[in-house]
Amino acid sequence: MQERRVVRADAPARSELEAQGWVMIARSWGAGLALDEQRRERLRHLVDRAHPLVSVREVTASDAEAVLALDRETAHDYPGDIATAHEALTTAGATPTATHRGWGAFTAEGLLVAMTFADTGPDVTETDFTVVRRGWRRLGLGSAVKAAGVLALADEGRTVFRTGGSFDNPASIAANRSLGYELDEEWLTYAPGSRPAR
Ligand SMILES: CC(C)(COP(=O)(O)OP(=O)(O)OC[C@H]1O[C@@H](n2cnc3c(N)ncnc32)[C@H](O)[C@@H]1OP(=O)(O)O)[C@@H](O)C(=O)NCCC(=O)NCCS
Does the Cβ of 171 fall within 6 Å of ligand 1? Predict the structure, then answer.
């Protein structure tokens, strides 16, 4: 693959790259969530309204096969370039751990139709990815699983939640806005430009 550089939009490296002829090929964003009681109430509403269509719960190791299957089906659904790319999960990646936690929405028949995974660092909890099965989108399920994860992790004492995505992904921007995430970072992806022949 062609070389890429990802820099913050306000970093001096940006003008240096542009001066060297690098070309911006993708824009992405980072966002944070301020959690107060009113926000928690909103998140509870997002989870509650997904019932009875689905039930939302934390993903366990016994869901790994279902997580892998949904991941395979949706592998090509993530817009953007390397800054927002989603790597296909392995069995290990599909199995939650103490620092890689997942929440899912399951139909009455037990089919996994939406999932989100988050990485919990010492201070910051960062969304890894969120995805909804095709045919089940725009039903509130992406926001429901993400809201369930934030609420559960906040109950464990986590206070700093971050997420990010591509500016070419209106669904992801809208779903995160709906939870209350506020965009506060912009990142640019550059590729080497083709220089004019001498
Ligand atoms: C992004 C994604 C997870 C959203 O899940 P979803 O279940 O369809 O979203 P929801 O139904 O919860 O919608 C949440 C909000 O986003 C809006 N929205 C959803 N899809 C939208 C779209 N394509 N365009 C504009 N707005 C959209 C909804 O109207 C809703 O807004 P509201 O709260 O103001 O009513 C889903 O589109 C998806 O799986 N995309 C492919 C994978 C991906 O790109 N993941 C994100 C990067 S990790």
Answer: yes
| Ligand 1 center–CA 111 separation, angstroms | 19
Cα(8) to centroid of ligand 1, in Å? 25
Give 195's pLDDT tier (boundaries 50, 70, 90).
low
Torsion angle, alpha carbons of 31, 115, 53, 134, to 10: 90
Distance (Å, rounded) from C-alpha 158 to C-alpha 152? 9
Share of the chain above pLDDT 90, in %: 95
Domain ranges of the chain: 36-186
Q: Which CATH class is domain 36-186?
A: alpha beta
Instruction: Read off the pLDDT of residues 17-72 as tens digits, 9 standing for 90 and up.
Output: 999 999 999 999 999 999 999 999 999 999 999 999 999 999 999 999 999 999 99
In the chain, the amino acid numbered 141 is L
